[in-house]
Amino acid sequence: MAEQLLKNKLATKEYRTLAQIKGPLIFVERVANVAFDEMVQIIDPDGNSRVGRVLEIDGDMAIVQMFLGTEGLDISRTGVRFSGDVVRLKVSLSMLGRILNGMGEPIDGGPDIVPEKLEDINGSPINPAVRNEPKEFIQTGISTIDGLNSLARGQKLPIFSGSGLPGNELAAQIASQARVLSDGKTGDEPFAVVFAAIGITHRESSFFIEHFRSSGALDRTVVFLNHADDPTIERIMTPRAALTTAEYLAYTHNLHVLVILTDMTNYCEALRELSVAREELPGRRGYPGYMYSDLASLYERAGRIKGNKGSVTQLILLSMPDDDITHPIPDLTGYITEGQIVLGRALNQKSIFPPVDVLPSLSRLMKEAIGKGHTREDHQNVADQIYSFYAEGRDLEKLVAIIGEASLTEQDQRILNFSKRFEQEFVNQGSTNRTIEETLDLAWELLSTFPKEYLKRIPEAYIEKYYKEQTAND
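-> structure tokens emitted (474 positions)
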């Protein structure tokens, strides 16, 4: 991709004014008419060509970020040519079903991508005046998301995981199960999925590929794989290449596209590595002060455009270092995005999958995506009642650890039993793909262990229609 672009648009002037080589960066002095993010060709002493991009301009000095490292370069014998254009990605509808590296080049043994367009990898900001508010419901097949933290088309929603928690497994399951629902009907229109794995191991990449192939989801998925042993710059480019592909599929071919980025913690670590190489003043915990705006430049590429049927929805997986939700990465991500799905270690230790802790989880756009015409009329009230009982049950679990169950009232016992059943039957679903109807029916089955008069957050009309006439002993 990059090499072909340079052949077409290569500037004739070659600079041999390298001042310094530091890590993945080279510093070129006495340059003229060079722009930020411009593509660069570097000719090493052996005459071989490498590719980089302009990271910063300071007067007549350009800082160039190398894509394939700086090993073997010599300050006095290395030539630099500036292309006059930004990094561009070859995009085509034929990318669906393909496995690419972090720069968008095929690694599945198939043919090269024949481009319909060459798109700027940085994308174009969506004019707020033509943005459509995310409203339509997305069915992920995961009850704790669909029922209690619903995802809307065009939304950006992060999943906060931790070391040893099955965040990747959950992301892969959602990628294969996600469906577009319209007018509350359980349609079978699947999303086109753009899956970007950032800084993962070869074992993890094998898991993702095998999962997509076995589930039949690969044919509608574009997979970008960046491994932990790939260059740092590729880690920076991978999410941008994935989002550029998603925007092309959504806004040119009118597809609904689900973008899954995992693991953004590895992306932020690459940002910090480059910041250290540039000797920038560190921010919180050593991360660059511009990490907020850098992450926003990625997350804000989700959305819908008026007059266009396509949409870009983002699920962003990140690992919280030491399970610390106040760490800069989850903290800044939470500010930019529209909610959070939190995986709980305590639930994982109970062998519950997916271990979604619903109490700290939320979706800020849930109310816009559910209800009559989207899912079902009782959806919001059922979710509110579930939250209320489960929160009370969690408090009772702490109390029981101190005073024992013998001191609980009959209602307290009901709530405590509900909390246990909720975790084992509603949260714990394994690899099962549940429709929103199945999720809400299961919720009613659990709520029906209470007498009707205890369901204070649900209107009487819905109780009469959906209450299942059973007792706690059933």
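The longest strand covers residues 49-58.
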